[in-house]
Design a protein that fits this description.
By secondary structure, the chain is α/β, with parallel strands linked by helices. It is built from 12 helices and 9 strands.
């Protein structure tokens, strides 16, 4: 048996004992206050039984028919409890009004044992309220929180009954039905709170505090993303959160996935036990939308192989756009310029809010055949490369390979550096080696340096 169900079972036993005790003494002493409290405890007994079975149902995992689990069983139980409380209140009010109107019913007999029983009841109510409240906070259980509130109202009602009996013992018999009416007010207040809170949950009303905490956690912990939509619902103390975030259209899939993971972690820190689903979409702000449409327009032009570095710049009331175009390397400058002009016209037609388009032309490296270089070329180049690497790093390269292409001799170089070297320093070392190789051996067309720890 789970700890939640054990706690609920203790409440069932306590409520049953209190009903029997209050009812027996109330009938013996003709105390309407005690009889009303017995009815009140009777509702608590029914509620405790409902909670016992509801908690057992609510902890069941999700299944093909209940994708979000069975947590709302607790809230249905709480609504049933509230309905029972309202019914008991009607009976309490009717009996109290009849007694105050002098219907001829037996007057209260506030004996010493009636007072002693009420004192014991108050002590039990205090212990039940404390135990249920602690369990509700520990397990975040709506049903157990409802029990704690009712036990607290029981304590207040029992206190009112005790006061009524003491005043009746002093010679004022109407104090007992007045105490019963006080109990009725407590029951109505408790029922109203229960109904409002649990109807909100069953109607999927977003808890304002939780929604604010989740949105703040995303904004503070995950920079670079825009929160587009946050939907939140709860059941049985658990939050279900649906988040839609916008990221830059240029972000890679892995970067978008990392952003989603960061959002999930941020929401989980703000709302423990939350079930979070994050959907990632490209940012569609005005600037991002202009870039995206311009890129699509440029790629529609024949012979445009790649578009990158698309920038949107607002200059006063004008919008300028610049981008880099990669075209086949075999085109003449005149042909490439014609393609660029076509791209500019296409963008201006597709994105009318852009006033000016500036293009930067780059050749796209075509696939070229590689072959083994001559021994003479390798021998001369290898000696220079090895010397430069030793002078820059203090050690020989881990790998040195040459390849002859139509564009010239290509060098592939692998360097082993200290694992604690900063990335910026490693890049600077590789760049320095590349530059020295090109200066000393101009016949080498390209140098590719790979660094590793």
């Amino acid at each position: 048996m789970s700890p939640q169900r054990r706690t609920a079972l203790v409440s069932v036993a306590a409520a049953a004992g209190l009903v029997a005790l209050k009812l027996a003494v109330g009938l013996a002493s003709h105390s309407l206050g005690l009889i009303s409290e017995a009815l009140h405890s009777g509702t608590d007994l029914v509620a405790a039984l409902l909670t016992f079975f509801a908690v057992g149902w609510a902890v069941r995992p999700a299944d093909p028919s209940h994708h979000y689990g069975h947590g709302k069983a607790e809230h249905l139980s709480a609504l049933a409890e509230a309905a029972i409380l309202v019914g008991a209140t009607v009976l309490i009010v009717w009996r109290a009004a009849t007694r105050l109107a002098g219907s001829g019913a037996a007057h209260v007999n506030p004996t010493w044992y009636a007072l002693a029983v009420v004192g014991v009841v108050i002590a039990i109510d205090v212990s039940r309220a404390v135990v249920s409240w602690r369990a509700a906070r520990r397990f975040r259980s709506a049903a157990m929180q409802s029990n704690a509130l009712h036990f607290a109202s029981d304590m207040a009602g029992s206190t009112a009954v005790l006061v009524g009996l003491l005043v009746a013992r002093a010679g004022h018999p109407n104090a007992d039905p007045i105490a019963a009416l006080f109990v009725a007010v407590l029951v109505l207040m408790a029922a109203g709170r229960l109904m409002r809170r649990n109807v909100d949950v069953l109607m999927d009303r977003a808890p304002a505090d939780a929604a604010l905490a989740a949105s703040r956690a995303i904004e503070r912990s995950v920079p670079g993303v825009r929160l587009r939509r946050l939907r939140l619902r709860q059941a049985a103390g658990r939050h279900f959160v649906d988040v839609v975030i916008g990221v830059s259209p240029g972000e890679a899939v892995a970067q978008g996935h990392a952003a989603a993971d960061a959002v999930e972690a941020a929401v989980a820190r703000a709302l423990p036990e939350a079930d979070v689903v994050v959907h990632v979409e490209p940012e569609t702000g005005q600037e991002a939308a202009v870039r995206e449409r311009a890129q699509e327009a440029a790629l529609r032009v024949p012979r445009v192989r790649e578009v990158h570095n698309v920038n949107v710049i607002a200059v006063g009331d004008r919008t300028e756009l610049s981008l880099h175009l990669k075209l086949p390397g075999g085109l003449s400058l005149e042909e490439a310029h014609g393609v660029a002009e076509e791209v500019e016209r296409e963008i201006l037609d597709a994105v009318p809010e852009v006033d000016t388009v500036q293009t930067h032309l780059e050749p796209l490296a075509e696939v070229s055949a590689g072959r083994r270089p001559s021994a003479t070329a390798v021998e001369g180049g290898a000696a220079s490369v090895l010397r430069i690497v030793r002078e820059e790093t203090g050690a020989a390269p881990r790998e040195l390979r040459f390849l002859q292409t139509d564009a010239g001799l290509v060098v592939f170089l692998t360097l082993g550096l200290d694992p604690h070297t900063e990335l910026g320093q490693a890049h600077a070392t590789a760049s320095a080696i590349e530059e020295r190789i090109r200066q000393e051996r101009p016949e080498i067309g390209e140098v590719h340096v790979h660094t590793e720890p």
